[in-house]
Structure to design on (315 residues):
């Protein structure tokens, strides 16, 4: 093996800049097929390599490490997560395993906040409804959503991403609760305006719950049917919540936003994977908002008294 240009397996095509850097320093073997590499091919290609750049679709375990051979020094996972890597097996084989923390912290927080907004305002549902072409006339109770501003957000897992989500919530004047095994320094709580809660109390008090805990045997199905029943509305990540419990909650509360993104069309809210683009008449309504349209209209009617009522728009 050429120590100056060690052989490295790259299990999927990456952005060209990354591939150019690997190729400049290593004897690169690149899998350029569609989708993930088949398991038997992966085990064949990793043989004799000094390093491997893997994805979440590539299981790195004793079988993989034995196939690679004793010269394998590192498995570099192209992901923040490392659910696909058996860390204990790497330790036994003396192989370094790495991931890419902090690369997607802000991006993931953006996505989490976007999902919360979409669930609250029923964006995807409204898009599907308009695309269906069904005839409709807007009414006061049509597509009622839930306000995000000044609501209470519960964050389970208050690491980098959880704290980044809390920063976004401050822009919407949200009250932020969090739960984590490890509490951050008091100055972090103060900066983010975040209050610690036990998990059950967080679920009871929150209008929205966002899960950002590592997926481990201890956190898998952390949100079960009993804990779902404690909540008001939630969007749950699939790995932390068993699907039957999510389906029951969605059927009981059709506007809850409980979803794993893979429920089939049919019962309850339709599934579907169409792009979120079109909405109509969804923004102004929240049945729980005391200062909503109906209340404002009532105030104006009362002020008008017996005088002739004239139309006055809300601006």
């Amino acid at each position: 093996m050429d120590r100056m240009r060690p052989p490295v397996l790259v299990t999927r095509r990456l952005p060209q800049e990354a591939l150019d850097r690997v190729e400049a320093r290593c004897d690169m073997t690149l899998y350029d097929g569609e989708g993930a590499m088949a398991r038997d091919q992966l085990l064949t290609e990793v043989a004799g390599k000094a390093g491997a750049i893997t994805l979440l679709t590539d299981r790195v375990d004793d079988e993989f490490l034995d196939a690679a051979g004793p010269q394998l020094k590192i498995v570099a996972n192209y992901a923040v997560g490392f659910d696909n890597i058996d860390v204990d097996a790497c330790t036994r084989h003396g192989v370094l395993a790495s991931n890419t923390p902090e690369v997607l912290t802000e991006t993931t927080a953006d996505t989490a906040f976007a999902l919360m907004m979409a669930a609250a305002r029923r964006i995807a549902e409204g898009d599907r409804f308009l695309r269906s072409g069904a005839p409709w006339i807007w009414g006061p109770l049509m597509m009622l959503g839930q306000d995000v501003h000044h609501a209470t957000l519960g964050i389970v897992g208050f690491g980098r991403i959880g704290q980044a989500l809390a920063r976004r919530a401050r822009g919407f004047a949200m009250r932020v609760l969090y739960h984590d095994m490890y509490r951050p320094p008091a100055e972090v709580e103060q900066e983010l305006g975040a209050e610690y809660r036990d998990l059950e109390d967080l679920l009871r008090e929150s209008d929205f719950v966002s899960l950002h805990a590592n997926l481990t045997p201890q956190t898998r199905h952390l949100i079960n049917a009993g804990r779902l029943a404690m909540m008001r509305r939630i969007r749950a990540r699939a790995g932390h919540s068993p699907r039957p419990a999510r389906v029951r909650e969605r059927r009981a509360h059709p506007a809850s936003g409980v979803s794993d993104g893979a429920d089939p069309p049919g019962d309850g809210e339709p599934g579907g994977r169409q792009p979120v683009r079109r909405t109509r008449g969804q923004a102004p309504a929240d049945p729980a908002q005391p200062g909503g349209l109906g209340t404002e209209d009532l105030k104006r009617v009362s002020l008008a008294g017996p005088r002739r009522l004239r139309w006055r728009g809300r601006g």
Observations:
- The longest strand covers residues 152-156.
- Residues 234-239, 249-256, 258-281, 306-315 have pLDDT under 50 and may be disordered.
- The chain has two domains: 7-98, 105-280.
